[in-house]
């Protein structure tokens, strides 16, 4: 490996190695990829004590940097979370291999037989903050899809990511796949990120996973195509026909289960007809659970709320805070979401099927939910084993990005000496 002080040379070497590995992975058998992921899961579990110990160093670093409680929660690993990493690796391993899947198959009048077939993207660059489990998720999904991956973890998770990465590499070696299939950038230097964004010769797509600052930087400066979302400004609309018990369960879970994830609820919209009943109850429950509620004037009579400011609408708190306002009807709720949302995940709570259908049909978020916690906005919960991130754009991948979304396709055209008139 090149001198860590020469970042351009370092990244050129990493890119070249990834491109070479990608050429081998493109036709690696499903069995070998499966074996690599199972072996990696076993190495992660066997080395869990070391992984947790290195995470303690990262937690100390995070405290010194003054990370918020939500960010510290994202960073923290314990045995249960390591077990979740292991389960995620195994879940990805057991999924059907997407490479080579025939998406369409037809014969033209000319006699040509044409197939559209899934094929790997090539080399994926993943830039992420805080969450060390992304090392395993991204590595596993890219491998499953036949892609090499270059991982650039956050400075906070530097040691944890390295320990997890080492286990993934051991899995590759056990399955006789190239070690360079999953590479971790071995420096905290931010210049490595800038280099990745311009590596058009070796990186086929960049996936940023982190806060607005990181994703915005990537989208502004990348010359490589990007799968991304800027923010998870997640709304829950409580309709006039909502079930009070479902509202309490879903809203509290959506806000408080894990506040630092992109599926956490950030704004509560309440139909005016139930503002003094269901609305009062759920706002009270949030406050009692320790959530700071930034409410509009119609809810400010509730003891403990704080007056909402303009900047509270469209704000991603990623903390025990939420905005809340009363709306006159469904149309007003959808207008608010279109104005302040981020096309990530939005939810309606109602027992009226027609109202729910309008919400699901007329809004264009990547994920729309009815009577379910927005904390389910996750590739693992969608049956993908894990996700590399959630994309809110309109091109190629949208919503949770799993192994299948990390492929493109090619056309296979077969003839019998067929010529065109």
Structural overview:
The chain has 13 helices and 16 strands. It is α/β, with parallel strands linked by helices. The protein folds into 2 domains: 7-227 and 401-414, Aldehyde Dehydrogenase, Chain A, domain 1; 234-376, Aldehyde Dehydrogenase, Chain A, domain 2 (3-Layer(aba) Sandwich), CATH 3.40.309.10. Strands 10-9-11-8-7-12-13 form a 7-stranded parallel beta sheet, sandwiched between helices. Strands 5-4-3-6 form a 4-stranded parallel beta sheet, sandwiched between helices. Helix 2 packs antiparallel against helix 5 (79-94). The chain starts with 6 loop residues before the first helix and ends in a 7-residue tail after the last strand. The mean pLDDT is 93.
Query: Which CATH architecture of the largest domain?
Result: 3-Layer(aba) Sandwich
Count all strands and give the number.
16
User: Runs with pLDDT <50, length 5+?
Assistant: none
The helicity comes to 40-55%
Structural class: alpha/beta
- The SSE string, one letter per element, is HHHHHEEEHEHEHEHEHEHEEEHEHEEEE
Which fold name fills CATH's third level, the topology of the largest domain?
Aldehyde Dehydrogenase, Chain A, domain 1
* Arithmetic mean pLDDT: 93
Spatial order of strands in the largest sheet: 10-9-11-8-7-12-13
């Amino acid at each position: 490996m090149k001198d860590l002080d020469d970042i351009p040379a370092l990244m050129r070497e990493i890119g070249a190695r990834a491109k070479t590995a990608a050429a081998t992975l493109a036709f690696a058998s499903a069995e070998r990829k499966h074996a690599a992921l199972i072996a990696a899961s076993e190495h992660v579990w066997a080395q869990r004590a070391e992984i947790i110990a290195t995470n303690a160093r990262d937690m100390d670093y995070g405290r010194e940097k003054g990370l918020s409680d939500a960010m510290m929660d994202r960073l923290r690993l314990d045995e249960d979370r390591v077990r979740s990493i292991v389960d995620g690796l195994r879940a990805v391993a057991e999924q059907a291999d997407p490479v080579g899947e025939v998406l369409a198959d037809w014969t033209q009048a000319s006699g040509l037989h044409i197939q559209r077939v899934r094929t790997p993207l090539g080399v994926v660059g993943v830039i992420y903050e805080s969450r060390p489990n992304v090392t395993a998720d991204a590595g596993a999904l890219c491998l499953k899809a036949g892609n090499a991956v270059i991982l650039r973890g956050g400075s906070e998770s530097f040691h944890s990511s390295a320990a997890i990465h080492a286990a993934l590499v051991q899995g590759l070696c056990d399955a006789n796949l190239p070690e360079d299939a999953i590479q971790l950038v071995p420096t905290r230097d931010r210049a490595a990120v800038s280099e990745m964004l311009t590596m058009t010769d070796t990186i086929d797509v960049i996936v940023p996973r982190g806060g607005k600052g990181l994703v915005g930087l990537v989208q502004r400066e990348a010359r490589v195509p990007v799968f991304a979302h800027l923010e998870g400004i997640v709304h829950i609309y409580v309709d006039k026909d909502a079930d009070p018990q479902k509202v309490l369960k879903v809203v509290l879970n959506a806000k408080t289960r894990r506040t630092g994830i992109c599926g956490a609820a950030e704004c509560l919209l309440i139909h005016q007809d139930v503002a003094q009943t269901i609305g009062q109850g759920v706002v009270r429950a949030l406050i009692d659970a320790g959530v700071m509620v930034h409410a509009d004037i119609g809810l400010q009579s509730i003891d403990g709320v704080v007056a909402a400011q303009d900047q509270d609408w469209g704000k991603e708190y990623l903390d025990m805070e939420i905005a809340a306002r009363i709306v006159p009807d469904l149309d007003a709720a959808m207008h608010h979401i279109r104005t302040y949302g981020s096309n990530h995940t939005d939810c309606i709570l109602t027992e009226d099927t027609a109202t729910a259908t309008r919400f699901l049909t007329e809004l264009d978020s990547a994920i729309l939910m009815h009577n379910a916690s927005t904390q389910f906005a996750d590739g693992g919960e969608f049956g993908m084993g894990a996700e590399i991130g959630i994309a809110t754009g309109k091109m190629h991948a949208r919503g949770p990005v799993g192994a299948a979304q990390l492929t493109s396709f090619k056309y296979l055209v077969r003839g019998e000496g067929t010529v065109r008139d």
